[in-house]
């Protein structure tokens, strides 16, 4: 009888271990194996890379996010904003950290081309998922005096500020998310500043674009 109880207990423990192991390594549960977490925390990026790639390709959003970070910062891989963007876009569908990061990158316009429409979309997605950082950044970029500002209205206000010669207003609108380099030439802020003979604003815009 005692032997049977021992066998049953052993069986239960083994099954429990197997279920735990499967859950830990299953790509669909969007968790990372402890071994990979430890490698990332200790800076062993080269060792973590192969299993991260495998999990990312299988749809694990945490692996996709971590892989994007490696490409973004060039950790054990060739630095690539394009590949970082790809994996962030994959992860952003269900990972609030990824949607916040790619939204902030689109807003900054440094690692990725500035795109406020995309920034708004992904920050809103992250905010909806509970990210306080995304909520704060979204409000600072797109909301003034508790009124949401459209990207088109920001551009209209920017052009008005340039023509009026108010550098302080131009700076404030830029900080809210107005774009200094739109593709369509007629509304290019620098061209408008030059035509309006706003030398100080022109120099400021050039400095921002080149910086």
Compact summary:
71% of the residues lie in helices and 2% in strands. The protein has helices spanning 2-25, 34-41, 45-57, 61-73, 81-92, 96-108, 116-128, 132-142, 151-164, 167-176, 189-195, 199-210, and strands spanning 143-144, 147-148.
Highest CATH level, the class of the largest domain: Mainly Alpha
Query: How many individual domains?
Result: 2
One letter per element, helices H and strands E, the order comes to HHHHHHHHEEHHHH
Mean pLDDT: 83
Give the second-level CATH assignment, the architecture of the largest domain.
Answer: Alpha Horseshoe
Assembly level: single chain
State the shape. elongated
> Major sheet: size, sense and barrel closure?
2 strands, antiparallel
Q: What's the N-to-C terminus distance?
A: 79 Å
> Strand order of the main beta sheet, please?
1-2
């Amino acid at each position: 009888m005692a032997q049977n109880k021992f066998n049953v207990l052993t069986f239960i423990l083994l099954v429990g271990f197997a279920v735990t192991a499967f859950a830990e390594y299953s790509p669909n549960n969007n968790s990372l194996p402890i071994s990979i977490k430890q490698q990332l925390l200790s800076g062993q990026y080269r060792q973590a890379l192969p299993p991260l790639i495998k999990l990312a390709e299988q749809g694990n959003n945490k692996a996709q996010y971590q892989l994007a970070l490696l490409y973004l910062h060039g950790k054990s891989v060739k630095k690539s904003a394009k590949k970082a963007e790809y994996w962030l876009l994959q992860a952003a569908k269900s990972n609030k950290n990824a949607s916040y990061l790619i939204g902030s990158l689109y807003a900054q316009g440094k690692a990725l081309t500035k795109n406020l429409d995309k920034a708004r979309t992904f920050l809103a997605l992250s905010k909806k998922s509970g990210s306080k950082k995304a909520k704060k950044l979204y409000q600072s970029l797109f909301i003034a005096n508790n009124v949401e500002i459209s990207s088109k209205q920001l551009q209209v206000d920017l052009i008005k500020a340039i023509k009026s010669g108010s550098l302080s207003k131009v700076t404030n609108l830029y900080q809210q998310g107005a774009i200094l380099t739109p593709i369509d030439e007629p509304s290019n802020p620098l061209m408008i500043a030059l035509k309006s003979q706003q030398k100080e604003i022109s120099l400021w815009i050039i400095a921002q674009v080149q910086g």
